[in-house]
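Look over this entry.
=====
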Amino acid sequence: MKLFAVMLIFALAAAGCTTKSSARMKAQNAFLAGQHTALQQQAQAAAQGTGVTIIGAVQNPQVPWVEGLTLAQAIATANYLDSKEPEEIILTRQGESATLPPNILLSGAVVPLKPGDVVEIH
């Protein structure tokens, strides 16, 4: 009888346990679902023209647009992460692109942005 009780306890404990691989898979699926949701929200914001998208080595690729937002402000808000200075900046607005020299940021020139603009930093 004692052996039966011990076996029953182990059986019940095993039934409620999660294996490491199962837990890892659940965590990975939750991460991917969250990442997918965030990408959908970014795409919706870009489609609605409510922000500026920064492509490149940045921490925050979606920058909310506010009246008077400039290129320098958007890049600073996006938090540029690369240790070297960019070689070129491409601004795309309504399907038309313009390549800007990166020293435009240091020269103090003001480049105003509009909702839906996409800035590529290379």
